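Response to reviewer comment R2.3. The reviewers asked that we include at least one raw input/output pair. We reproduce the pair for NUDIX domain-containing protein here without editing.
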Amino acid sequence: MSHEMRFCPNCATPLQWIASQEDSGMKDRLRCVACHWTHWGNPTPVLAAVVENDRGEALLARNAMWQEGVFGLITGFMEAGESPEQGICREVMEETSLRVKALRILGSWEFLRMNQVLVAYHVRVDGDVKLSPELLEYQWKTPQEARCWPSGTGYALAHWVRSKGVEPQFGAFRPGQSPEPDPVKWPPRPWAEDARFVLPPLF
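Raw output as returned:
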């Protein structure tokens, strides 16, 4: 995380790392010694979209803060008072001027470095692309042309590529990143073959 909570939002007292008993046992968290407020550090929900046009191509865009040649999905923070579905339709409209006409959920992935949880959708759109100031350029990619990356939104793109009957190809998102997908996350496996979903024996 680039910023850390330093003061209690309730009474402005400096927070301290304090161990306290919780449901799961003793846990160190930032806590207020004055009013006992706790900073839980819950992940922030981020919405992502594989944006598909009527030609069956996916939109990839370059953020203004990214280096040249780096493209990703349309993403944005979920806002208070909206559902994830409303949020991703708003984000797509704000960032591309495209209107979502259909959507389905692809899945959710963690982005631990930024303490975020990604909720990804596949959306079909109408209209002409007009990028927001946050984005510099865009590309339309067929499933055969798309290169997925081994992190949250890259796995969402891989699911879209596979839904088109094409086996996804992975590559590094940035120089120095491993191009290989996490074997726990890709390829997807039936529950019976995935150790994360094996139920404990009944007694």
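The chain has a mean pLDDT of 93. The chain has two domains: 1-41, 44-170. Further pairs are available on request from the corresponding author.
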